[in-house]
Design brief:
Helix content: 25-40%
Number of strands: 8
Number of helices: 8
Strand order of the largest sheet: 3-2-1-6-7-8
Order of helices and strands: EHHEHEEEHEHEHEHH
Distance between the termini: 34 Å
Radius of gyration: 18 Å
Largest sheet: 6 strands, parallel
């Protein structure tokens, strides 16, 4: 039954932002959680993004802080700067590896992975999750020109959800902003680094039986 399936959300922050910007709406992340909580047992909701170091103010920081205190596991890493062959300064902040590792580690504990990205590089990850018995839905859009989702990723997924069809369920109303009262929340340590034996409980909130931990 749908209500019994264990679901995990994996959100490629930069990709989702680019997609919603193209579609002309903003995500209401509280509504997004509620939508997928209604579809089963939501085990975890991950949000991945790279942050520019040594920047006095980052426009994404308020969102990151809000997500971190409101039901999401935020995974970040510093961006890297480089100069391309034309001498132009570029900033790189790819989170694909972090997302893939978390998904594969969580695979034994979920039935359904919902990937918010159109990046074709995730096709191999989707296939690997399916081999482990996990159903995979990809959330992006084909309503733009060109489509925001790679064809190979869409074909590999068990289900494709078009963001344009979810606007009424997870879109933010005009004038709405995520509310966060200054000083409302205390400090909470973020868990980072590799997952050691027993670390799945600490990082993902999943209690392991002794049989689940390999020696």
């Amino acid at each position: 039954m749908a209500g019994q399936q264990r679901i995990a959300l994996f959100i490629d922050g930069a990709n989702l932002y680019a997609t919603t910007k193209t579609l002309g709406f903003d995500i209401d992340y509280k509504k997004l959680l509620k939508e997928f909580q209604s579809r089963g047992t939501l085990v975890r909701a991950f949000y991945y993004t790279a942050l520019v170091e040594d920047q006095e103010y980052s426009s994404i920081r308020p969102l990151i802080d809000w997500l971190d205190y409101n039901g999401y596991r935020v995974v970040t890493k510093p961006t890297k700067e480089f100069v391309d062959s034309a001498g132009r300064r570029k900033v790189k902040g790819n989170m694909d590896i972090e997302l893939a590792i978390d998904a594969l580690e969580l695979a034994p504990y979920i039935d359904h992975m919902v990937l918010f990205s159109g990046d074709g590089d995730f096709r191999s990850l989707v296939e690997a999750m399916q081999r482990r018995g996990v159903r995979v839905s990809v959330v992006s859009t084909v309503t733009t020109q060109p489509p925001m989702v790679a064809d190979e990723l869409r074909r590999q997924a068990d289900e494709f959800l078009d963001l344009s069809q979810l606007v009424s369920k997870i879109g933010r109303e005009q004038g709405e902003r995520p509310a966060r009262v200054p000083g409302e929340f205390g400090e909470r340590p973020r868990t980072q680094g590799p997952v050691s034996p027993g670390g799945l409980e600490r990082r993902y909130g999943i209690r392991q039986n002794d049989d689940d931990i390999e020696g």
